[in-house]
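Assess the record.
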Amino acid sequence: MKQGRSLVDLAKTVEQLATQKVDLVAPTTLMQLTDSGRLIVNAEHVFEPSNACHNQLAERLNIPAKYYRTMQEQAPGLLAENVNHWLQAKNERRMVRGLGGVARAFLSDRYHRIDNEHVLETVLPVLLEAGDIQVQSCEVTESRLYVKATSKNVVVPVRESRR
């Protein structure tokens, strides 16, 4: 069984990551992809886009993913030219979610944020009050928060299947 972190380590990590977050909502006309692949927002915030962010940029700008990846690998200047053209042409408000210098997402400005620290604020008291909960594993990744817990007090009847 994969253990990952302890619940205390998970909480500390999530708390530390929360201090590195930045969510910027800006018009796409104030965004630019550089030839070196960095995403600049509002002329002052510079991010290294994650793969997820690149995928979301490609999708939103209607650039086929395979072509986007080819430009990224073989012609970064052409990718920047394409992305910047379509960012200017779209002229819409988008949210860039950043974490420690990485642009982890390119989303709608109406995206409802549910952050890991908010999830833990809700889940941890329930786990602690339940008493006999045993945390099997927990981890935080670039895109997910995992907590697997079991309890012997939660019993669900199993119906007999009829054949």
Notes: The first strand starts at residue 21 and ends at 27. Residues 51 and 104 are 8 Å apart (CA to CA). The beta strands are 21-27, 31-33, 39-41, 45-49, 93-99, 102-108, 134-140, 145-150. The longest helix spans residues 76-90.
